[in-house]
Amino acid sequence: MTRNMASIINKLLLSGKYHDLLTLMKGFRNGAVYGAKIRFPHALVMTLLFRGGPISEQARTILRATYTHSKNLASFVILYKGLRLMFIKFDGKPAEYHSFISALIGGYLIWGKYNKVNEQINLYLLSRILYGLIKLGVERGYIPKPKGDSFPIFGALVWGIVLWLFEHHQHTLQPSLQSSMTYLYHESNLWHNIWDFLIYNR
Fold this sequence. Notes:
The protein is mainly alpha-helical. It contains 8 helices and no strands. Helix 2 runs antiparallel to helix 3.
């Protein structure tokens, strides 16, 4: 790109004339990049650790998961930002419900399609929003402010409930969590000799 062309593009970007359109384009770009940055290393590690098969199939699995995450995040960002901008233009000023309704529609259309990537992202967000809602409830006085450090109670409840579900209602948990917990808590009860006690699991 020539210096003159870069100068023209910079003037256009900084003029403010097409700010709404440009913010959608930049949001799409950031969603695609962030989705790939987050998913590729995760898919690489999980595939190499837990999936067998030919290298070509493993590479396809990694690239498919990365593409899905990147595409969905980019699509959601542009949809959410576009809807929110429409609400703001319609009302004349921003309101809290704009964010909720815009994300609700985007969540249904993008994150509501079942696949493993969407499931993981939705579960990740669920834990974060529950934590955030409790903090908001304390801030607004709906929940009494704990005296002292409440994190040990949080940790105790999370682990108490998940192990109770695992031991007595395992079918209610996500398959990957069932698999991890079976490895940690049940398969550690079994061995036949020193080799499957120390070197490999079974």
